[in-house]
């Protein structure tokens, strides 16, 4: 047994240093479906000092450390593929401040995203980033993955809200990059660099977030189309007209049909695709804005447009949208979720190609997600044994085609889930060797022994 675990147990107490197989099970998986990769120990930190201790000792003893929020990541970023320690910030759940004058919140990394949103709203404020897992993901994980969600269409992703960090490097050095002010260009944008670094640069111990005033009103409409391509064209039409809903989502027939029996919102039967369009703003401007979007959908061939009657109905529709991913995972023996992103003008074309890819490889596909951003969750599903060579080859063939088509349309491999271990082999398809090399050098500048979340993002 490595001596570091005894030292950690002595310093932090055995309750915070988990070693037994049964307890480690919970830290061996995430939402990627990859693994299991049980770590040798999971250390549950309560403070920045404890994070520093773990990273100092791990560096001295040359033990890999994998930072973990609440394990909702979809690309294996929080998996201990190289053994070692999983450092969990799940217990650091304090909202330290919500300041309506400075328009900031200061939080510990284990705060659940939805909990911060509710607390901000209770103070008349607004924290926009809304990953679908908002009821069970943490802000530390959101920062590491630069998480996004439906409202990114109008408000952008996590990086746009993280203005300051306290973060600990491998070896234990504590840094406080960023600011509390509305603006600031002192030095490099180190905060921006850490957002989306997938836990390979440092472990956040405190996050300062920008808040907005809470929008006065919110309204939602749902438009039904014969097929996803038509829905994609409607989305492009709304964007071309310069309308600014806060979310512009799509669900295709496979996603809708799957989720309908569990839906708390009655999705029209026979829908080939739906577009969910949510708007916010001043009450007086809202009704005409909804009307304009509804008309754009009509003109693009919607067979039905329904406006949510009240707040309860609006919430029910989002619940239905949010359960799509976990529900598909439970229903199928194998699910791999992609989160490609294509330029907005190419949304309909990508949907056309996805349809062909499913047919070509004889695989069930369900596509949904943040289509207004061109960010499509193309889910490849099968009930066959995905470990069987022929099935695995079909799945790999489909994924390869999805990425090839995405890149040929000038898109990108990942719009919100990151690369992790799920997509690292495709990195050279998108990025030149020089660019990958620069990023690897950057990583080694911050972590010269390559011990913090090793083996992620880049091809190994
Ligand atoms: C969502 O938007 C999540 O629901 C998960 O990003 C997507 O499972 C998926 O494909
Ligand atoms: Zn998503």
Task: Give an overview of the whole structure.
With 460 residues, this protein is α+β, with helices and mostly antiparallel strands. It has helices spanning 3-12, 21-24, 48-61, 113-122, 139-145, 152-155, 190-194, 228-240, 253-259, 283-299, 311-331, 347-360, 389-408, 427-430, 433-446; strands at 17-18, 41-44, 65-68, 85-88, 95-99, 104-107, 125-126, 162-168, 174-175, 203-210, 212-213, 217-225, 247-252, 273-281, 304-307, 334-337, 340-341, 364-370, 375-382. It has 4 domains: 3-88, 2-Layer Sandwich (Uridine Diphospho-n-acetylenolpyruvylglucosamine Reductase, domain 2); 95-213, Uridine Diphospho-n-acetylenolpyruvylglucosamine Reductase, domain 3 (2-Layer Sandwich), CATH 3.30.465; 217-323, Alpha-Beta Plaits (2-Layer Sandwich); 332-428, 2-Layer Sandwich (Alpha-Beta Plaits), CATH 3.30.70.2740. The chain has 15 helices and 19 strands. Strands 12, 13, 14, 15, 16, 17, 18 and 19 form an 8-stranded antiparallel β-sheet that branches. A hairpin with a 5-residue loop joins strand 8 (162-168) and strand 9 (174-175). Helix 1 packs antiparallel against helix 3 and helix 12 (347-360) runs antiparallel to helix 13. The chain is globular and about 65 Å long. The model has no long low-confidence stretch (mean pLDDT 97).
């Amino acid at each position: 047994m490595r001596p570091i675990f005894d030292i950690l147990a002595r310093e932090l107490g055995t309750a915070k240093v988990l070693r037994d197989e049964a307890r480690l099970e919970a830290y061996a998986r995430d939402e990627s479906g990859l693994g299991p990769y049980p770590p040798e120990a999971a250390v549950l930190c309560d403070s920045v000092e404890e994070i520093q201790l773990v990273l100092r000792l791990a560096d001295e003893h040359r033990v890999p450390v994998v930072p973990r929020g609440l394990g909702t990541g979809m690309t294996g970023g929080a998996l201990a593929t190289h053994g070692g320690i999983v450092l969990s910030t799940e217990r650091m759940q304090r909202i330290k401040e919500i300041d309506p004058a400075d328009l900031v919140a200061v939080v510990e990394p284990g705060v659940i995203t939805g909990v911060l949103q509710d607390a901000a709203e209770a103070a008349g404020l607004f924290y926009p980033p809304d990953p679908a897992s908002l009821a069970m993901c943490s802000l530390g994980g959101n920062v590491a993955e630069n998480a996004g969600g439906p409202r990114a269409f109008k408000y952008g992703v996590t990086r746009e809200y993280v203005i300051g960090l306290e973060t600990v490097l491998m070896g234990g050095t504590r840094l406080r990059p960023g600011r509390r002010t509305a603006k600031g260009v002192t030095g490099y944008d180190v905060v921006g660099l850490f957002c989306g670094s997938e836990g390979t640069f440092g472990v956040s111990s405190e996050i300062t977030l920008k808040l907005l005033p809470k929008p006065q009103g919110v309204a939602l409409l749902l438009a039904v189309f014969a097929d996803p391509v038509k829905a994609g064209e409607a989305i492009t039409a709304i964007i071309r007209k310069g309308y600014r809903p806060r979310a512009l989502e799509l669900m295709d027939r496979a996603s809708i049909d799957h989720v309908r029996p569990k839906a708390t919102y009655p999705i029209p039967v026979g829908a080939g695709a739906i577009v969910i369009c949510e708007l916010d703003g001043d009450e007086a401007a809202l009704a005409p804005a909804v009307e304009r979007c509804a008309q754009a959908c009509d003109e693009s061939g919607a067979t039905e447009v329904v406006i949510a009657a009240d707040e309860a109905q609006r919430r029910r529709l989002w619940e239905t949208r949010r359960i799509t991913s976990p529900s598909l995972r439970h229903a199928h023996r194998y699910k791999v979720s992609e989160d490609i992103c294509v330029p907005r003008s190419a949304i309909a074309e990508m949907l056309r190609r996805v349809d062909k890819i499913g047919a070509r490889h004889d695989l069930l596909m369900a596509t949904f997600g943040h289509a207004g951003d061109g960010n499509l969750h193309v889910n490849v599903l099968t009930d066959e044994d995905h470990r069987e060579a022929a099935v695995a080859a079909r799945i790999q063939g489909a994924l390869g085609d999805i990425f090839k088509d995405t890149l040929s349309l000038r898109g990108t491999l990942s719009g919100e889930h990151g690369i992790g271990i799920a997509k690292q082999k495709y990195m050279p398809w998108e990025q030149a060797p020089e660019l990958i090399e620069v990023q690897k050098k950057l990583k080694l500048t911050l972590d010269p022994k390559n011990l913090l979340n090793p083996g992620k993002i880049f091809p190994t």
